[in-house]
Design a protein that fits this description.
single chain; about 270 residues; mainly alpha; MetI-like fold; 11 helices; about 80% helix; membrane; transmembrane helix; Phosphonate ABC transporter, permease protein PhnE; transport
Length: about 270
C-alpha cells in the first residue's frame, strides 16, 4: 500500500510538471511568432520571389557543362578539395589534443586546460575564422583550408575525447600492471580500439566541412560560394539554380559514399 500511495502522490506532481512545461513552451512559441512581421512583404517582393523560383527551376545548363576554371564542375572540385584538405589537417592535429584532454589518460589539471582551449576554438563561428584568415592570406582557397582545419580541430577533438573516455579500461590497467609507459599504452592498448571510430568521425566531419566550405566561399575563401553570391547579387537566378543543382548533386554523392564507408567501419 505504501508504494501505491507514493505513486498516487507522484501523479499530481508529474501532471503539474507537464502543465508547466507546456505553458512555458507555449509562451516561447507565441513570443517567437510575435517577432515575425509581414508589413515588409510587398508586391515587388512577391514578384522577385516568383523570379527566384522560375530561375531555380530553369538552371543555366551551360554553366553545369562548362569544364573551364569558371565552370561549376571545377568550382565544385575546388570546394571539395578545400573541405577534404581542411578535414585531414584538422583530424591529424586533433589527435594529440584529444589525448591531452582525456581525463582517463591525463591528469585532471592538464585535461581541464586543454578542454578549455578546445571550447574557445569551438565557440568562434567558422565564418569569423574565414574573415580573419582572408586578412592574413588574402582571398582564395588557402584561407578556406586554414579555416576548415581550425574548426575541425575543435569539433573532432571533442568527439575523439568522447570515444577515448569510453574505452575498455581493463586493457589499460593490465598494461600498467606490467609496467608499460604512457606512449606504449596509447600505441598498443588504445589506438587499435580507436582507429575505426576515429575514421568514422572524420568522414562525418568531412560532410559538415563540405557544406561549410560553400558558406566560406561567400566571404572570398575559395570554392563555389563566391560565384553563388555574385549571381544572387546580380539577380541571375538561372545561374543560382545551376550552382545549387551542382551542390545538391555533389552533396548527395558524398553523403551516399560516406554513409557506406561509415557503416562498413562501424560493423567491421
Amino acid at each position: 500500500m505504501n508504494a501505491i500511495d507514493k505513486q498516487l502522490q507522484l501523479q499530481p506532481n508529474r501532471r503539474m510538471s507537464y502543465i508547466m512545461t507546456i505553458f512555458i513552451l507555449s509562451i516561447l512559441f507565441v513570443w517567437s511568432v510575435s517577432t515575425i512581421h509581414f508589413e515588409n512583404v510587398s508586391l515587388n517582393g512577391t514578384k522577385i520571389a516568383k523570379n527566384i523560383l522560375v530561375g531555380l527551376l530553369n538552371p543555366d545548363w551551360s554553366l553545369i557543362f562548362n569544364v573551364s576554371t569558371g565552370g561549376i564542375p571545377y568550382l565544385l572540385i575546388e570546394t571539395m578539395a578545400i573541405a577534404f584538405l581542411g578535414t585531414i589537417v584538422g583530424a591529424l592535429l586533433a589527435i594529440p589534443l584529444a589525448f591531452l584532454s582525456a581525463s582517463n589518460i591525463m591528469p585532471n589539471p592538464i585535461a581541464f586546460v586543454v578542454r578549455l582551449l578546445l571550447i574557445i576554438i569551438r565557440t568562434i563561428p567558422a565564418i569569423v575564422y574565414g574573415l580573419m584568415f582572408i586578412r592574413v592570406t588574402g582571398p582564395g582557397p588557402f584561407a578556406g583550408v586554414l579555416t576548415m582545419s581550425l574548426t575541425s580541430i575543435g569539433m573532432l577533438s571533442k568527439l575523439y575525447v568522447d570515444v577515448i573516455e569510453d574505452l575498455d579500461k581493463s586493457v589499460l590497467e593490465s598494461m600498467e600492471a606490467i609496467g608499460c609507459t604512457l606512449m606504449e599504452k596509447i600505441r598498443f592498448g588504445i589506438w587499435p580500439q580507436l582507429t575505426a571510430l576515429f575514421l568514422s568521425i572524420v568522414i562525418y566531419r568531412f560532410d559538415m566541412n563540405l557544406r561549410d566550405a560553400t558558406v566560406l566561399g561567400l566571404v572570398g575563401a575559395g570554392g563555389i560560394g563566391a560565384p553563388l553570391i555574385f549571381a544572387m547579387n546580380a539577380y541571375k537566378w538561372s545561374e543560382v539554380g545551376a550552382i545549387l543543382l551542382g551542390l545538391i548533386l555533389l552533396i548527395l554523392v558524398v553523403e551516399f559514399v560516406s554513409n557506406r564507408i561509415r557503416t562498413k567501419l562501424v560493423r567491421g
